[in-house]
Amino acid sequence: MEAVLLLSGGLDSYTAGAMARREGYELYALTVRYGQVHHREVSAARDVARNLGVARHIELDVDLAAFGGSTLVGDGAIPKDRDLEKPGIPSTYVPARNTIFLSLALGWAEVLDARALVLGVNALDYSGYPDCRPEYLAAFERLASLATRAGVEGRSLEIKAPLLRLSKAEIIREGLALGLDYGLTHSCYDPDPSGAPCQRCDSCRLRARGFEQAGVADPALRHVGPRS
């Protein structure tokens, strides 16, 4: 069985890919260079893809920075030390990003005759993005059945989001049980020129909270100094 994995280089997509691999899927990884300011994640995605033993890894350029609308593509400053429980959608939300990414993955899946799209979205420890919700994924799965030749011919395609209802700590424990090396991953939205994480953006803080609750040290911080 083939599956297309949306691979960012972060710990979530890495874990989701490993869980799909455990189910017997042969993985084809898609990483999108969308104009993100934290482009360090792309090199992390290469390391993760090698570690997962994917059949093929495509890096695709789709410059969403041309639209703007998100601090992740350079439209304003990345927020730091934000209240993670504050309601509302943060400025790091990239308009329609998961819809764009899943559509690209869907196109490749049709070519491969793959039966699943795999992504690491999470509805618990996330930043309030609307395209990380279960109802969104269910709607896209329905769209895929209507919009593709495979769907019309009765070959259903499943959206697999195995982390959807797991906390970040549960995700980390699952990955460690699978033998994953989280030192390969990168989560920071605003790394310094050396690629070291800022430890203050939403993504860094959610990651730090997850490792703390899991009771293990984050290997990605092994050579990084304390938060400033």
* Overall average residue pLDDT: 93
The number of helices is: 7
Known CATH architecture: 3-Layer(aba) Sandwich
Q: Rg to the nearest angstrom?
A: 17 Å
At CATH level 3, the topology is: Rossmann fold
Main β sheet profile: 5 strands, parallel
CATH superfamily: HUPs
The rounded distance between the terminal residues' Cα atoms is: 47 Å
As a percent range, the share of helical residues equals: 25-40%
Helix and strand string, N-terminal first?
EHEHEHEHHEHH
CATH class (first level) name = Alpha Beta
- In spatial order, strands of the major sheet run 3-2-1-4-5
- How many structural domains does the protein architecture include? 1
* Low-confidence regions: none
What does this structure look like?
- This protein has 228 residues and is α/β, with parallel strands linked by helices.
- It has a single domain, classed as HUPs (Rossmann fold), CATH 3.40.50.620.
- 36% of the residues lie in helices and 11% in strands.
- It is built from seven helices and five strands; from the N terminus they run βαβαβαβααβαα.
- A five-stranded parallel β-sheet has the order 3-2-1-4-5, with helices on both faces.
- Strand 2 (26-33), helix 2 (40-52) and strand 3 form a beta-alpha-beta unit.
- Helix 1 packs parallel to helix 2 and helix 1 crosses helix 6 (168-177).
- The mean pLDDT is 93.
